[in-house]
Amino acid sequence: MKASTEDQALLLDLQALDTKISQLDHRAKSLPEHATLDGLGATAQQLRLALAEQNGALEDVKIELGRVESDVTVVETRITRDSERLQGSSSVKDVAALEQELTALRKRLGDLEEIELTVMERLEEQQSAVDSTAAQLAAIAGQVSAVEAERDAALATITGERTTAAAGRRTIEGKVPADLLALYERQRARYGTGASLLRGGVSMASGVKLLENEMQAIRAAAPDDVIMCASSEAILVRTAESGL
Asked: What is the C-alpha separation between 188 and 196, in angstroms, rounded?
């Protein structure tokens, strides 16, 4: 393939912009905020699971407390009823039976009130656990918002740089002959680099110094010959720095 030295030199500018775009894409994917957000997300998920379990336990305690309170109400109602019957009874037998039942009911009430107090303490502890986990989740949400803002700001900067680089690439691309551009794009797609500067006998794409017989072949080639780099498979661009 033939191409003027000026057109071949354009490939170095094109490669520089492609390299920059690739670096910007890598930066966008590798922002530390991504890892931070992943970590916060995992922590938040664990807290959500813990909160769901704690809320379930809290509801169980509330149900248990409701049953105890209902039992207390029933016993208190029976004590009130029996006390009123005791006041209105004139039968010694009935009085004795009512007093015996009241004694049992008051003991039952005392036992229930102790149970009620224990359940209320458990309810308070469970509510405290729920509140603590919910507060941790809220704190995580705040951290996520802050990190997302940092990430978005960094991405906006990278996007701006990429947009500028892409615009520059389009400008240069429009100046490169179609067949030369197609070769460049094919080599870049296959091997990662489309064009390499030959500087002081070294292919800059691979960092490999060319052998003397390779240099002799390049010296013998016409300036508009398109030469491929044996080590990088990129188009080898010759300039005054090439050491020819």
From this structure: 11
159-184 pLDDT per residue, tens: 999 999 999 999 999 999 999 999 99
The answer to whether 237 touches 9, Cβ cutoff 8 Å, is: yes
DSSP conformational letter for 196: E
76 SS3 class: helix
The one-character DSSP state at 226 is -
Q: Give backbone dihedrals phi and psi of 218, rounded to 5 degrees, phi first.
A: -70, -40
Q: Map residue 105 onto helix, strand or coil.
A: helix
Structure tokens at 156: 């906006």
Where exactly are the structural domains of the chain? Answer: 5-21+177-238, 31-173
The Cα 74–Cα 197 span in angstroms is 94
Q: What is the SS3 assignment for 233?
A: coil
pTM metric for this prediction: 0.78
Assess if CATH 3.40.50.300 describes domain 31-173.
Answer: no
Q: Going by DSSP bridges, is the β-strand pair 202-203/208-209 parallel, antiparallel, or unpaired?
A: antiparallel
